[in-house]
Amino acid sequence: MKKTLKVVAAIIENENNEILCALRSPEMSIPNMWEFPGGKVDQGEDIYAALEREIDEEMNCKIKAEDIFHENIHEYKELIIQLIAIRARIVEATPQKSEHAKLIWLNRENLNSLIWAPADIPIVEKLIKEK
Ligand SMILES: Nc1nc2c([nH]c(=O)n2[C@H]2C[C@H](O)[C@@H](COP(=O)(O)OP(=O)(O)OP(=O)(O)O)O2)c(=O)[nH]1
């Protein structure tokens, strides 16, 4: 049976209404695809705490996870992802790239120009429709 992973992803918007997008590196699983930064929720961990921890670990930046934007389940060939996108705001420092290949800020209308991890497509569509 396929493993199901609970994953949280941050929707972070800046003062220019741009959204933070991260490119998975060639070394990561689901390589060379764009995602919203975040990661796996540990066993028993609160989803908001998990997102704040992941962004701190991954981008050396403190955020406040605010509310759930979208939740969906996506079945990949090898595993199933329960992806929870959570709106968040930066409270300290600027996101720094470490394991990702690139970090960019993009307007909603340009989000479709990237090649997204398949599980993220419903989130991208909802963001584009939102405004
Ligand atoms: N963080 C994040 N992961 C996503 C998104 N969409 C999506 O399919 N994923 C997948 C990629 C990974 O298989 C999993 C998240 O794991 P992770 O980001 O903690 O990855 P990791 O480096 O710990 O794991 P791995 O690449 O070593 O397998 O969810 C997304 O928008 N954000």
From TrEMBL:
The biological processes this protein is annotated with in GO are: DNA repair; DNA replication
Q: Name one GO molecular function term.
A: 8-oxo-GDP phosphatase activity
Which segments constitute the Nudix hydrolase domain?
A: 3-129
Supply the EC number(s).
Answer: 3.6.1.55
The record, for Gene3D superfamilies, names: Nucleoside Triphosphate Pyrophosphohydrolase
Q: Which UniProt keywords apply?
A: DNA damage, DNA repair, DNA replication, Hydrolase, Magnesium, Metal-binding, Mutator protein
EC top class named in words? hydrolase
Cofactor(s) required, per the database record = Mg(2+)
PANTHER family referenced in this protein's UniProt entry, alphabetically: 8-OXO-DGTP DIPHOSPHATASE, NUDIX HYDROLASE FAMILY PROTEIN
Family, as annotated: Belongs to the Nudix hydrolase family.
Q: What is this protein called?
A: 8-oxo-dGTP diphosphatase
Q: Which organism is it from?
A: Paraliobacillus quinghaiensis
Name of the coding gene? mutT2
